[in-house]
Inverse folding.
């Protein structure tokens, strides 16, 4: 049986895109308290099912597919530029394909504007109307207003006309930043991208016997199976270790592992992989907020995803990407890494920051480990100290050296030099993540 929270989320998903919703409306429609409705609407906002806009309200929006995440909705534009809707509220859920800065003659401007565009322009009243007729929304900068005729036309066409107090250059910069951030988000693998869904997952019941587990295990040879109640709620997991030596008539509920480590669909694959390494498990159940089983991920799923991600070009650069771009492998012996300290790698004093050096050392350690052992490695703990400050523009050489390697752990020592002088030292412990 579904919880009230899940019922509300399904109700919201069933609403038409662009429809306004409120706590009172949901509470009345589903006969729940205002508090329950409020919490569910907040969860729907986290799931990108609705968007709450100041002075507008909460509206149902189209949930973005990951491949289209770089597109902004007009509702999101309002939040980014702290805008005010002058007209065309019915079109706030629509996505824009591009934005055009209206810093040219009207005829020239219209060559760049088509349906789905957003025209960023000041108080050029004729441009507002012409853009709407071409199927584009309008963002009026400088805090200017639009005419009543334009507002009426915007309502009829369901194309938003938005006003913001920022100037055109600032608005364009803000939108560029938002799109860029979403490009980075697009590249982050989440558990929901790789999970085996519930429909394809073999599950067992608390009322099943160990004999049934042995029969299923002999057919599939999987490492473990989730145990669920009749309602679909996850209550445990059973593996061969749990069942070994147990009577065939013993109930699974008596032998299963009940203290579970679980993840949600929004957990990053990297985080899930780290949990599997840390806890020494091969299978992670994926659950909803209410505890219902959504699917599973295996150690092999995580490995494949991490290896695939390394082969994909990053469309939006993070600080880590910028730092790693400075790395150059210097063939040895010993094999070392060389980089130049750029402004993005410095702290407030203009010298190499702990964060940037940690990123570089982590990557250098991973590279030297891969020359000796297959599989992925994750830093578990680290000790790092500077002997001297490393200034902006310095050329730095990192010499990693493996001190000890076992099946699951690797200790790596680092010497960091500038112009032949030792300026820092570090020791990292890595855990190995093998099949």
């Amino acid at each position: 049986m579904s919880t009230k929270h899940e019922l509300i989320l399904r109700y919201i998903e069933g609403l038409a895109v662009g429809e306004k919703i409120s706590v009172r409306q949901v509470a009345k429609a589903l006969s729940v308290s205002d508090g329950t409705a409020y919490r569910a609407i907040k969860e729907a906002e986290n799931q990108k099912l609705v968007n709450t806009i100041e002075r507008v309200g909460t509206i149902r929006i189209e949930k973005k597919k990951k491949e289209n995440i770089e597109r902004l909705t007009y509702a999101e534009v309002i939040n980014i530029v702290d805008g005010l809707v002058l007209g065309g509220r019915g079109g706030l859920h629509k996505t824009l394909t591009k934005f055009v800065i209206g810093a040219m003659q009207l005829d020239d401007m219209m060559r760049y504007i088509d349906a789905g565009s957003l025209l960023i322009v000041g108080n050029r009243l004729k441009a507002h109307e012409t853009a709407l007729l071409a199927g584009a929304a309008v963002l009026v900068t400088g805090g200017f207003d639009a005419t009543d005729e334009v507002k009426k036309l915007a309502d009829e066409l369901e194309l938003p006309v938005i006003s913001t107090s920022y100037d055109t250059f600032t608005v364009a910069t803000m939108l560029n930043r938002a799109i860029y951030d979403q490009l980075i988000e697009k590249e982050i693998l989440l558990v929901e991208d790789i999970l085996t869904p519930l429909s394809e997952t073999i599950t067992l019941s608390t009322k099943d016997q160990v004999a049934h587990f042995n029969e299923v295990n002999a057919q599939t040879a999987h490492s473990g199976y989730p145990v669920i109640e009749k309602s679909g709620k996850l209550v445990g997991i059973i593996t061969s270790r749990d069942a070994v030596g147990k009577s065939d008539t013993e109930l699974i509920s008596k032998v299963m592992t009940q203290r579970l480590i679980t993840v949600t669909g929004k957990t990053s694959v990297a985080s899930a992989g780290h949990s599997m390494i840390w806890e020494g498990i091969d299978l992670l159940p994926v659950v909803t907020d209410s505890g219902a089983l959504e699917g599973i991920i295996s150690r092999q799923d995580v490995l494949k995803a991490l290896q695939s991600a390394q082969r994909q070009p990053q469309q939006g650069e993070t600080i880590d990407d910028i730092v790693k771009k400075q790395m150059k492998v210097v063939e040895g012996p010993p094999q070392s890494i060389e980089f130049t300290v750029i402004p993005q790698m410095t702290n407030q004093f203009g010298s190499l920051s702990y964060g940037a050096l940690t990123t570089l050392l982590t990557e250098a350690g991973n590279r030297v480990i891969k020359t000796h052992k297959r599989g992925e490695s994750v830093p578990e703990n680290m000790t790092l100290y500077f002997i001297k400050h490393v200034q902006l523009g310095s050329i730095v050489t990192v010499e990693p050296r493996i001190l000890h390697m076992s099946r699951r752990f690797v200790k790596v020592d680092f010497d960091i030099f500038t112009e032949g002088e030792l300026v820092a030292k570090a020791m990292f412990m890595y855990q190995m993540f093998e099949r």
